[in-house]
Records
---
Amino acid sequence: MRRLGRCMLLALALAPALAAAAPRADEVRGFRFQIVTADDSAVTRRIADDLYKRLVPIFAGFRTELAQKRRMLYLAIGPAALREVAERRCDCAVISAFTSSQVWHTIQSALPTQQANSMTAVYAEPAPSDQLRLVSLLYRRPVRVAAILGSDTAFLKPVLAGPLEVEDYAAGDDINRILNRIAQTEVLLALPDSDIYNPENIRNILLSTYRHKQGVIGFSADMVRAGALATTYSEVEEINTQVAEMAGEFVASGQLPPPQFPRYFRTIVNEGVARSLELTVSDEARRFARPVPSRQP
């Protein structure tokens, strides 16, 4: 598939794990890492095969003394694989990829402190800061932006509460009432929260925001194709590049970097939705991206 968004069906980021067959631990002797997957789909194989090729040269010079006791690094591809690794309760380090920040925080927060501190991630969804930059490029004027946060995404409130109008969502809340409360804002920043952006709500949210002339900044390319205005998104190889960089930091220092949103990305715009919102999309907005740096000789 050409785009990572296709890995994440609309209800996606919220739900089932991408995962995949990858080299087993006994196939990578001499290297202190294992790619953990939960299915054998073509997308997951693509993720695992590409990641394996990036990790082998990094771990060729692995010095176990730098990693102290954590001499095994697990790369968990998707939510199901992350849950599997978390259940092992091993003395190891874990990098999660292709899992939303919501799911990662839910799993990580339920673990004992020592184990939780030995995990990090490259989240599946775009960075809110990059999404807000995209909003400024699309509208080219100050606009009011809202976000709806459930209990599992409340950890983002300190980051969003300043530049955005944040509405809280609790189980059983009427999503229509919340949408009416933010009807005067011009943009809704959607975040992958399965309590809010689920198959039952998503069509209603897109129709309501369309009637209110609000642009929705989605969290995947699929969401844009379904009716959101635009989003930044990352390809498999862009996420894997960042994961490999994090693994390289671990090999060099024995320390895991903190969890991160995708560093490398590109942009997709729904031109039909933009026209209905009477937006003239600039080439600068369409080309908004942070590409992977070219490899140096």
Note: DSSP finds twelve helices and ten strands in the chain.
---
Amino acid sequence: MKMLNKVPEITIFFWIIKVLATTVGETGADFLSTTMKLGLVGTSYVMSALFLIALLVQLKSQRYIPALYWLVVVLVSVVGTLLSDNLVDRMGVSLATTSIIFASALLVVFVLWYLSEKTLSVHIIETTKRELFYWAAILCTFSLGTSAGDLIAERLGVGYALSALIFAGVIAATYIAYRFFKLNAILAFWIAYIFTRPLGASLGDLLTQPVKESGLGLGTVATSSIFLITIIGLVIYLTRRQKQKSMSLNAASH
């Protein structure tokens, strides 16, 4: 069944909220698991349930609702982080292996999505099937970004600040390739989307980890709160702008 487009325009606001959401995914998971003492398993159950509820509401919606869409993104960022953490911390799977697992899972989603829809475009998401592929791909990018980011920043000893610069550099190079060298727009989008996850995770770790561990020592509570408030402010702005745009279109049609 066709619906109105269910996803936002790809603007600077999209990317700002995306990076903020990925950082909240990193700091939020740590806050619930460690600070609130829910543990990795308890946090996984709670956040997975909240994510599934929000996703079902999103799937039932017939149009793009900024608050609902970005709530799902924040929750999927936490769940994606927890998937990686459970494999690494609870099951002892190496970060290199989990990176390969999630990269393979993402590739499978892309292949199935393309075979079914003949496109991987994120500009028009107007059927439930296409939206399911969209969210499956996003979940895989968050888990992949978590594993790959931790692998580079921690296991390879690159550090959070330098890792953030590396990931930001990859995103900048992707934009330049798209803007000036005609890199395919869909490919450019997904490369940037994948690398904003480790960028956000590195920023989150940089802000929250103790100074002795190369962090700034702000803690998970302060960092999560600041970023969530910023996300809420931007979503309110986008919601108002969307309403004004709808009112203008309605007025023009009459």
Note: The CA atoms of residues 121 and 186 lie 6 Å apart.
